[in-house]
Amino acid sequence: MITALLAIDVGGSNSRATLVDLAGNCLGKGRSRGGNPGSNPPDLAAAAIISAAEAAVSDAGVDLSIAVALLAMAGPRVNAMQPQIEAAFRALGLSGPLVFSGDLNALLPSVAAATDGYCVVCGTGAGAVRIRNGEVDGVTDAAGWLLGDLGSGYWLGHHAAIAVTAALEGRGPRTALTEAVLDALSIPTTSTAVVDGRPMPLRLLIDAIYAMRPIELAKFAPLVIANGQDAVAAELLAQSERYLLADFQQVFAADIAGPVVLGGGIIEHLTGLPSAISEVMRAAGHVPDIRLSGDGSVGAAVLALRHQGVTVDEAMLATITASVKARVAKSSPSD
């Protein structure tokens, strides 16, 4: 029987489970939909996490003794989920503890063996963390769509919908986002009918938005990016950059020189953010070391190894990264 560690990178859009041995070799991979309990009902979030773990064990195809299961999870802690997850993991071979960690903690070890640094993320959610001695030492935002996540994909999508509503009512500027959002919702823009005192497209927009789960507004974020030359969209992206820069400034400590890891599907489109962060670093006398995040499941695997007392240096990080990449390629040869 092989001793393995189970690491799961749990986000709002997908959950990715990785099984590694104590040398960092990937034994199995599994994937399911989002398991963030802030974006999904707890029972569905737990089911997604369990499904990803089951897929990883199936992919491994050997008898395993799982020494630890570590969840690098976005969103709030929901204690009601833990018994369901733990029971399922015990059935899969978990003999050790179930450990929870923030998903932002996995960003730094996804690309660096350093145990001090920063992570700035802008995906469905947004925020910044300071890592000291391998542990989260400070957090700004990353509080979820209801309490923050300012500048995030959710925030961009939400404010795109607000801007379109204002434009259709005539109390806000015209914007290319109007046609983009209405088209995404299959709402015709040519109707001149009036319903309850509102233009038909606006009435249909309101109905469509309130039929969605709030977090689903994040699907409009790519429309903001695609229409970045539009004045309204450009200002939303600029405000997102300002929020993320402010998050970084709040967690920045002069005695930690980096690296700064940028993660999330939105952040690469905030093109002014790296230079703005670099200026903060230079002003403190540091040479900026800014990197795009790697595979979050690699970072989660590193956290699981460290939990077991394994020192992960640059060589082992390279082994983990290459092994996970090879396993993904083997499991999905058509990708």
From TrEMBL:
<feature type="domain" description="ATPase BadF/BadG/BcrA/BcrD type">
    <location>
        <begin position="8"/>
        <end position="304"/>
    </location>
</feature>
<dbReference type="InterPro" id="IPR002731">
    <property type="entry name" value="ATPase_BadF"/>
</dbReference>
<dbReference type="InterPro" id="IPR052519">
    <property type="entry name" value="Euk-type_GlcNAc_Kinase"/>
</dbReference>
<protein>
    <recommendedName>
        <fullName>ATPase BadF/BadG/BcrA/BcrD type domain-containing protein</fullName>
    </recommendedName>
</protein>
<dbReference type="InterPro" id="IPR043129">
    <property type="entry name" value="ATPase_NBD"/>
</dbReference>
<dbReference type="Pfam" id="PF01869">
    <property type="entry name" value="BcrAD_BadFG"/>
</dbReference>
